[in-house]
Amino acid sequence: MTNSNDIPLAAKPINRAAHRRTDEAWLDIAFKQKDVLILVLRDGAPLVARDGGLVWMGPEIERVSPGSPRLFLGEDKGGAPVFAVDLPPRFDLAGSLIEGIGEFQDFRQAAARMPAMDANCASTARSLFLWHGSHGFCAKCGGRNGIVDAGWKAQCALCGAEHFPRTDPVAIMLAVRGDKALIGRQKFWPAGFMSCLAGFCEPGETIEQAAAREIFEEAGILCDPARAEYVACQPWPYPSSLMMGFILPADNEEIRIDSKELESARWIPRSEMRDILNGTHAELFCPPAQAIAHHIMKAWAFRND
Questions:
Q1: What is the distance between the alpha carbons of residues 249 and 5, in angstroms, rounded to a whole number?
Q2: 134, 156, 182 — which closes off a domain?
Q3: pTM here?
Q4: What is the span of the domain harbouring residue 230?
Q5: Maximum CA pair distance of the chain?
Q6: Runs of H (alpha helix) within the chain
Q7: How far apart are CA 265 and CA 29, in angstroms?
Q8: Where are the alpha helices (DSSP H) in 174-301?
Q9: Model confidence over 65-96: pLDDT tens digits?
Q10: What is the pLDDT of residues 139-188, one digit of tens each?
Q11: Which of 134, 158, 193 is the last residue of a domain?
């Protein structure tokens, strides 16, 4: 059975220790402790070591880039505080105090090689830093927002309005009919790459209703949201979504794609879906195991084994 706690980017989370977020004195002391663990990002890209894991730093990060924004992510199993620091976009490793200890990598590429805890921490930090980067001003009065609660909230310096990091709910789903499942592709994807359909949940609808609506809008396939089967969910930091996976029985087979959303869509027999997942299909391939789409497809393809 697929379990969200085992899905990449969500697995092996640390204790978030939310009760520490408002204790500025404790946070300042914790940031300077010898056992503190600090991951480093630059414009959403994590600093990665040669072995694929994060470069974990200590209090010395303050000498590398004094005053850079920081987040308190929580505490590890041993109680050590865990932080993240966001270096300026133009920060150059060459000539810096941390030259040679690692390199900044695209998050998708880096996360695929990271240990589970590293990936979860980096994913969380990326989402929060990107959110703060696009919410520097108050939506109520236009004043400048400041980062408070150890990075988990923004507050306007003028009117005091509080703003909380946004997570967008996204339905990602596989319509199935008999021994076939519907997959599609967008035109900018690599040739042969196909995946589940997906779309954002709109105001006033359930996530199951969003799944059924998106399937019909993108491919013309009717599904009853009451029959939706939940599979698992995954935090997805691009920039900050919660992907909720479903399998939905379809009521028809005729595909009518919305060309603005999809380049093509097709029904795939279960046997071919297994080949796609195993990487042995002659024509098609799918998202890697890092993405929840892979696990939704796998849950259906191998459920009778």
A1: 25
A2: 134
A3: 0.93
A4: 168-301
A5: 63
A6: 24-31, 61-64, 107-111, 116-134, 207-219, 270-278, 292-301
A7: 55
A8: 207-219, 270-278, 292-301
A9: 999 999 999 999 999 999 999 999 999 999 99
A10: 999 999 999 999 999 999 999 999 999 999 999 999 999 999 999 999 99
A11: 134
